[in-house]
Task: inverse folding
């Protein structure tokens, strides 16, 4: 069978397009959050196995790499939340005009940035030394 | 002789309402995850500390245990649907695609089971 062209054709899109960037970023951040879910379940199971297991898991969960994952997950969550709400609004048939979606793309990026910075700052202040 | 137009034929044969199932569940889980994920994040930041005793007594609360169970199930489901779409779109080799879809589905099912079991085990009080 002849290979047929499949969507999405990553190579033919212009990467500077706001629409592509916001959509692609939603997938990337979703992927980061999937990794976050993996870590979260590991954390839960460590807790469920008792104090000693939890203390052992701290070596992994308290490492610098893990801290990087927490920061990435918080930033990804901020973006995925904003972009997800945009999708839910689109699903009602609203905001689909070109100018509107262009405006909401910038709005999503701005909201995500502000949210990420605020939550990171808040979490860092609350968890200082932890 | 069949006098149906092609459009009528398609309409008659087509939709059993299942075409939008994936889309619908993705949206449903997305809507549920907004309050659940925000609650979880706020809880984890505002808890007085993240040591073992504090966490276990927090998770042991009725509401926390229920909401955490819901979160684990909903997040696993939503993640499973999302990863499925990504794999379907970007993995072009049919064999690799099938294997990775099966693996992703299994891993998400295991995550959901582990997460729910862990929450229940803590809530029913076997650790410590």
Result:
């Amino acid at each position: 069978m002849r290979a047929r062209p499949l969507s999405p054709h990553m190579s033919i899109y212009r990467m500077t397009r706001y629409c592509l960037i916001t959509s692609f970023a939603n997938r990337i951040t979703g992927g980061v959050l999937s990794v976050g879910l993996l870590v979260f379940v590991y954390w839960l199971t460590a807790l469920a196995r008792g104090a000693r297991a939890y203390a052992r898991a701290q070596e992994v969960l308290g490492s610098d790499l893990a801290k990087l994952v927490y920061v990435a997950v918080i930033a990804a969550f901020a973006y995925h939340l904003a972009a997800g709400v945009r999708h839910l609004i689109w699903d009602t048939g609203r905001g689909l005009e070109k100018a509107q979606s262009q405006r909401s793309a910038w709005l999503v990026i701005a909201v995500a940035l502000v949210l990420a910075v605020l939550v990171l700052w808040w979490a860092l202040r609350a968890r200082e030394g932890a | 002789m069949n006098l149906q137009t092609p459009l009528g034929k398609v309409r008659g044969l087509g939709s059993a309402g299942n075409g939008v199932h994936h889309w619908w569940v993705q949206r449903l889980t997305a809507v549920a995850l907004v309050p659940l994920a925000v609650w979880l994040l706020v809880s984890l930041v505002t808890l007085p500390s993240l040591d073992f005793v504090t966490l276990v007594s927090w998770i042991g609360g009725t509401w926390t245990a229920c909401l955490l169970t819901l979160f684990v199930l909903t997040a696993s489901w939503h993640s499973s649907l999302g990863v499925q779409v990504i794999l379907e779109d970007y993995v072009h080799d049919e064999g690799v695609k099938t294997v990775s879809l099966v693996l992703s589905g299994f891993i998400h099912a295991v995550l959901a089971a582990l997460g729910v079991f862990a929450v229940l085990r803590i809530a029913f009080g076997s650790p410590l």
Q: What stands out?
A: The interface with chain B takes residues 6-8, 10, 27, 30-31, 33-34, 37-38, 40-41, 44-45, 47-51, 54-55, 74, 77, 81, 84-85, 87-88, 91, 119, 122-123, 126-127, 130 of chain A (CB under 8 Å). Chain A has a mean pLDDT of 89. Residues 17-125 of chain A form a domain with the 3 helical TM bundles of succinate and fumarate reductases fold (CATH 1.20.1300.10). Chain A has one domain: 17-125.
